[in-house]
Amino acid sequence: MPELPEVQALVDFLAERIVGLAVTGVELGSFSVLKTFDPPPQALTGAPVDAVSRHGKFVDIDCDGIHLVFHLARAGWLRWSDAMPTTMLRPGKSPIALRARFSDASGFDLTEAGTKKRLAAYLVRDPRDVPGIASLGPDPMADEFTREAFGTLLSGRRAQIKGLLRDQGFIAGIGNAYSDEILHVAKMSPFAMAASLDDEAVDRLYAALRETLAAAVATASGKPAKELKDAKRAGMRVHGRTGETCPVCGDIVREVSFADSSLQYCATCQTGGKPLADRRMSRLLK
Fold this sequence. Notes:
This protein has helices spanning 4-18, 131-134, 147-154, 161-166, 176-186, 199-220, 228-235, 267-270; strands at residues 23-28, 51-55, 58-63, 66-71, 76-81, 96-102, 107-112, 120-124, 253-257, 262-266. The chain has 8 helices and 10 strands. Helix 1 (4-18) runs parallel beside helix 6 (199-220) and helix 5 (176-186) packs across helix 6 (199-220). It is of the alpha+beta class. The strands form 3 sheets. It has a 4-stranded antiparallel beta sheet with strand order 1-6-7-5, with no helix packed on it. The protein folds into 2 domains: 4-134, N-terminal domain of MutM-like DNA repair proteins (Alpha-Beta Barrel); 147-270, Helicase, Ruva Protein, domain 3 (Orthogonal Bundle), CATH 1.10.8.50. The longest helix is centred in the last third of the chain and has 22 residues, at 199-220.
């Protein structure tokens, strides 16, 4: 799933190419991808692109006051073309969910692999009309997201820190991969309780969060859309690296599996050398 660094890179990529152009068409390859009905896709035709921005993991293209907002979900992606095919998109005939065309003949397709179709697009006059945006927590890269603000968010939270970092209503933009990375940098167990963290631990976690995301944003910046997935994988220290060597201590990267996801961690760096039990089998160690 694209997370904050990759989504920011997509925003920058699109902004460089489409701001100032006009939309010449929006075509649906899947009627279910569009979650709104007013305004209709035809309302974008001829509208100039004024800005491209990010809300958590949502991309927001402002077309003269009408916003094309999309969330790529777990298996979605954006495929850019400097010269789009001239043939119209036929619904249900390809993995393409939505196609957008612009006045210099360029455009992009939103695609989604697999059978679980979760990619979502919205046409709204105010981005806050998108339910997922309206409920977002603070952006962790914003200037106002200070150590003090982070500490206030954590205060009294009787929840495991891994789950909180992934909770979009708590902090916007972090998913499974970067939460693993942040916790590895912070040398913290994924299952530490937020309310139990002392000031030093909160300092360490805040610094790890900001530094990890900033480094990932810098790495992704300027890369073409088609290279972002590979760049993300290459930059991971522990996420997706079960059985490999921890780059910090040389221990083996371990995994805890859930019904539809997994997390990776280093026992030496994060849990005092104690492996975490698989939740499916027994209680997790802290």
